[in-house]
Design a protein that fits this description.
The protein is an alpha/beta fold. Helices cover 34% and strands 20% of the residues. The longest helix has 25 residues.
Length: 245
């Protein structure tokens, strides 16, 4: 019975159809993050680290040829996550972010001028301070860390709670492709950042959304209308740097 639950979930969350839909929905986010990176790290020769290998990595590579990725071991990837994209010429650092709680395990790979940590934090099942402290250790003195993550207080979630519905995803059966374990508010992120020696440079809310096939008529316009008040938007982006001691 449990195996059938696992198989059914993997088909929905890890199948080809799921990846296609994900890339369709998040294409605007990929472009928005690249624009944000160019604004804060305009030097195309910058040493860049993307956490997780995805279609976003491909977008970044077009502007930043000195790109590396960090995440699950690509050789042991069984298709359970989106790190199997074929970019064989891009160096990859195999590191499980859940190991960030052990400082002795942190990767020794030099420092980076730009680290992109996009839509990963909400999937981490350990205290976020561990992961951000590890990333801070990889940041150059003048480097920039861009972190994007869902807004836990988005309008849709507030409405669902008011209607007695839980807006947050249940824990998944397949641990190698975890859903959203914990989402954060702006104030929570600011507190976490201050605790790990990072500097809060900028924060913004965003609605990186495009109409996709199968969407109900008017959904795109409704999302845009609700997003006129920034704290109601679905995503948030933090620009961070190293705090000078």
């Amino acid at each position: 019975m449990l195996d059938s639950f696992l198989s059914a979930e993997k088909e929905i969350t890890c199948g080809i159809g799921s990846e296609k839909k994900y890339n369709e929905i998040h294409g605007a986010r990929f472009d928005g993050i690249l624009s944000l990176c160019k604004r804060y790290a305009p030097d195309s020769s910058a040493r860049v680290l993307d956490i997780g290998r995805s279609r976003l990595s491909e977008r970044l590579l077009r502007f930043y040829p000195n790109l590396q990725t960090l995440g699950f071991d690509l050789q042991s990837d069984d298709g359970g996550h989106r790190e199997s994209n074929d970019m064989t010429l891009v160096p990859h650092i195999a590191f499980n972010l859940l190991d960030s709680s052990r400082v002795s395990s942190w990767p020794n790979c030099g420092s980076f001028d730009l680290i992109v940590f996009s839509e990963v934090l909400e999937h981490i099942a350990i205290a976020p301070e561990y992961v951000l402290a590890m990333l801070a250790s990889l940041l150059s003195d003048s480097g920039i860390l861009i972190c994007t993550t869902p807004n836990a207080a988005a309008f849709k979630k507030r409405i669902m709670l008011a209607l007695g519905r839980n807006p947050y995803e249940r824990l998944r059966f397949y641990a190698l492709n975890p859903g959203h374990v914990r989402e954060y508010t702006r104030n929570e992120l600011k507190c976490i950042v201050s605790r790990v020696g990072l500097k809060w440079i900028n924060h913004s809310y965003a609605d990186w959304v495009l109409p996709v096939s199968g969407d109900p008529p008017g959904k795109f316009l409704l999302i845009r209308a609700l997003g006129l008040y920034p704290p109601f938007r679905r995503f948030q982006a933090c620009v961070l740097g190293k705090r000078k001691s």
